[in-house]
Amino acid sequence: MSKNVALVLGSGGARGLAHIGAIEAMEERGYTISSIAGCSMGSIIAGMYAAGQLEEAKEWFLSVDKQLILRMMDINLLSGNSIVKGERIIKELEKVVPDRPIERLNIPCTIVASDMVSTEEVLFRSGSLFEAVRASISIPLFFQPVQIGERLLIDGGILNPLPLHAVERTEGDILVASDISGKDSMPTEEIPAPIDVQGKLDEIAAKGISIPKSWENQLRRLGKRVDIIREQRAKDISRNINYFNMLDRMSDMQIQQNTLLSLRLTPPDVHSVMRQYAYKTFDFDKAEEIIASGKKLMNEALDKYEKP
Predict the structure, then answer these.
(1) Mind giving me the DSSP string for the chain?
(2) 210 catalytic residue (yes or no)
(3) Which one is catalytic: 34, 35, 40, 293?
(4) What is the pLDDT of residues 86-132, one digit of tens each?
(5) Which of 101, 138, 203, 240 has the greatest count of CB atoms below 10 A from its CB?
(6) Which of 155, 181, 262, 272 is catalytic?
(7) What is the pTM of this model?
(8) Catalytic residue at 293?
(9) What count of other Cβ atoms lies within 10 Å of the Cβ of residue 48?
């Protein structure tokens, strides 16, 4: 059984911190990562690992709180094409891992972005690491696109959230996917539990409080009406939809389907998968929990692979 790994890290915002735990699980079990590829958040972790400084990156991410996240948001509303410039976050990352040419990293590393002009994937295997990362994390409308020559680059996950075909392979290695965009159902609004009118009346009576019979009947009728409305809401899925989450859901569906397509075209030997709605895009303040979850999921995937 081969222990050399060609590792692919998918896109998914803060869920990408699970890649740190996934790498830790592999190394603790004696696997050697011989090449790596990533897009969006996966590109950050891939670059930092290939630079040999994943531990420093982990410590930094564990220190991130909501206040730091807000300080890194260099607002850019006047541009008309994004909310945030994206320069400040790259400067913060460079404090942890200094920029260097991708071709001089410890192992072969591929950073994946998407070209808005040609609608093609762009694979960075040389040049500035953080220029490539900055392009790969450019979530449309949120981060400003990156222009390099005649290319206008955005998030690599737009075209391929799990770029299994992009990682450099060596003879005898195994292909491992750390997938953080697993197929998931749309979160729905929690419906309140039925009202226990009789229970409330019994509580009142136990306290020695007497209320008129007409009041009791009125409360029971009100309870029945509320329960009818509750049941109607439970059946009405459309109550969860508005303009904003409709756009979100459409994007999520595209990401899920593109991930499944990538898995069919280039099936990995080991597939660790986190559900798409397990954590929100900006849950960076939950780093410890997400890293631990990523480690658990990768250990489960390796158990399945190693099972005789």
Answers:
(1) ---EEEEEE---GGGGGHHHHHHHHHHHTT-EEEEEEEETHHHHHHHHHHTT-HHHHHHHHHH--HHHHHHT--B-GGGSSEEE--HHHHHHHHHHS---BGGGSSS-EEEEEEETTT--EEEE-SSBHHHHHHHHT--TEEEPPEEETTEEEE-GGGT-SS-TTTS---TT-EEEEEEEEE--PPP-PPPPPPP-HHHHHHHHHHTT----HHHHHHHHHHHHHHHHHHHHHHH-GGGG--HHHHHHHHHHHHHHHHHHHHHHHS--SEEEEEETTSS-TT-GGGHHHHHHHHHHHHHHHHHHHH--
(2) no
(3) 40
(4) 888 899 999 999 999 999 999 999 999 999 999 999 999 999 999 99
(5) 138
(6) 155
(7) 0.83
(8) no
(9) 27
The two tokens of residue 200 are 């409330």
